[in-house]
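> example.struct
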């Protein structure tokens, strides 16, 4: 083989821009999903990455052959490791669906349309000021692109991995996650247990932890559970000119206020303890001692985190966000039913059942019904040590040599949680350096990734692939 030549970051940016211009917006409302756009993006990948499609085997994954909301795409790159390499592959994940942009219709017809607050049209894929701007640049088409760019370069150079590699790209991570669930089921049927799974998640950040000046590469070794909980109560209704005391909306508002007034107690979970232990050697001043003794000072440290900002607070407690409210259908009509949706992110060590039980106690109102709309417990915790973890460290050294590798608990849910059923080493890391503003732009306004970060992301992924160890067990030769 020849030495792989990684693409110029500017060229990577152009290809990411092309994908952003295909508005693959997810929705739980079937009429809002433009299936043709999803098919268009899958076809565009074949144009942009011909070597990948020439050598890797592609499989379109969905629950049924006639689904109209796109397909998850899974590529298999056959390695040289025989049966053992087939059974224990490396899996690189991403998803190509994106969330809607407030102010734009769904589905999106005009990719040049502007949206309130955005510096550039969200689906125009503008490359300007050293960045690619648009919905999906960070969540998660950017990660998809750097994975494909690295594989394209390695395939073009004639390189073959020592164990199988899968590229698993979901089409509905932002909604149901059925694509990833089906992909995992198919691998399980084939007796495959991935050696390592890497999906979106943490990033290279600076200033995220007090007293730590060095850039830190935070890699999720677990993710919080997720629960959508409906709170509802009923009443007789009637005309708004003759309201009764303590009506449905009042009781619902009181329940919400009680939840807000009684947050879950802060606690240092295993991943956060590992985070602080890792950063102790890199902290300055008194924080070095605090981090080093976090186990002994756990209650104090956990309480301190709740006062450091929304991200540190979310690291140490189960959070509840009331995201939707519904009452009367008319301005002069008393509500017969009042509803709210509480989106809960569950800290490792707690479960859907324990969360519902606590909220029931906090609300303390038998007229309020709590219904689990959907819920999943926190993921298992993957080890922050061993050959898989060291492989991530090796790739980081080639792309962000000054960054400190550290574990943490991922706050948001990802498709990777589906893979915990078949792999003990599931990590969550997007190989980009991100500012606080960029992290806030995910699902928000002015989402963008820098061109330089795209280049470093390709370098990270290529280094990861090139350093993948061969299977240790004796592998049967291929026929």
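> example.seq
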């Amino acid at each position: 083989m020849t030495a792989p030549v990684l693409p110029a970051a500017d060229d990577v940016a152009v290809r990411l821009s092309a994908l952003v211009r295909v508005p693959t917006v997810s929705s739980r409302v079937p009429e809002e999903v433009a299936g043709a756009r999803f098919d268009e993006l899958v076809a565009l990948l074949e144009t942009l990455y011909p070597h990948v499609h020439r050598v890797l085997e592609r499989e379109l994954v969905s629950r049924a052959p006639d689904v109209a909301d796109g397909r998850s795409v899974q590529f298999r790159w056959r390695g040289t490791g025989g049966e053992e390499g087939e059974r224990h592959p490396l899996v690189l994940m991403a998803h190509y669906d994106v969330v809607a942009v407030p102010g734009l219709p769904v589905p999106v017809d005009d990719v040049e349309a502007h949206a309130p607050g955005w510096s550039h049209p969200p689906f125009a894929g503008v490359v300007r000021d050293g960045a690619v701007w648009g919905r999906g640049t960070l969540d998660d088409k950017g990660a998809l692109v750097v994975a494909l760019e690295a594989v394209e370069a390695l395939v073009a150079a004639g390189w073959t991995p020592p164990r199988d590699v899968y590229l698993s790209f979901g089409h509905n991570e932002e909604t149901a996650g059925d694509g990833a669930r089906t992909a995992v089921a198919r691998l399980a049927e084939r007796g495959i247990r991935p050696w390592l799974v890497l999906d979106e998640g943490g990033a290279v950040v600076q200033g995220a932890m007090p007293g730590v000046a060095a850039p830190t590469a935070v890699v999720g070794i677990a993710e919080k559970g997720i629960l959508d909980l409906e709170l509802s109560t009923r009443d007789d209704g009637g005309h708004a000119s003759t309201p009764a005391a303590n009506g449905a909306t009042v009781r619902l508002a009181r329940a919400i206020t009680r939840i807000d007034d009684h947050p879950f107690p802060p606690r240092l979970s295993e991943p956060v303890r590992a985070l602080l232990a890792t950063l102790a050697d890199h902290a300055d001043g008194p924080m070095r001692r605090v981090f080093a003794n976090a186990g002994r000072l756990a209650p104090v440290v956990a309480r301190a985190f709740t006062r450091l900002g929304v991200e540190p607070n979310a690291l140490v407690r189960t959070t509840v966000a009331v995201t939707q409210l519904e009452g009367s259908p008319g301005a002069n009509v008393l509500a017969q039913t009042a509803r709210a949706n509480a989106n809960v992110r569950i800290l490792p060590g707690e479960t859907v059942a324990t969360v519902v039980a606590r909220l029931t106690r906090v609300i303390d109102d038998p007229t309020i019904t709590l219904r689990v709309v959907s819920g999943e417990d926190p993921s298992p915790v993957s080890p922050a040590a061993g050959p898989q973890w060291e492989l991530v460290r090796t790739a980081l050294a080639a792309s962000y040599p000054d960054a400190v590798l550290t574990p943490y608990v991922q706050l948001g849910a990802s498709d990777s949680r589906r893979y915990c059923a078949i792999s003990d080493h599931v990590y969550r890391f997007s190989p980009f350096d991100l500012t606080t503003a960029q992290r806030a732009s995910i699902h928000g306004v002015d989402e963008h990734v820098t061109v330089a970060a795209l280049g470093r992301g390709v370098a990270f992924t290529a280094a990861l692939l090139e350093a993948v160890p061969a299977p240790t067990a004796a592998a049967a030769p291929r026929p």
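> remarks
The chain has two domains: 9-222+380-466, 224-376.
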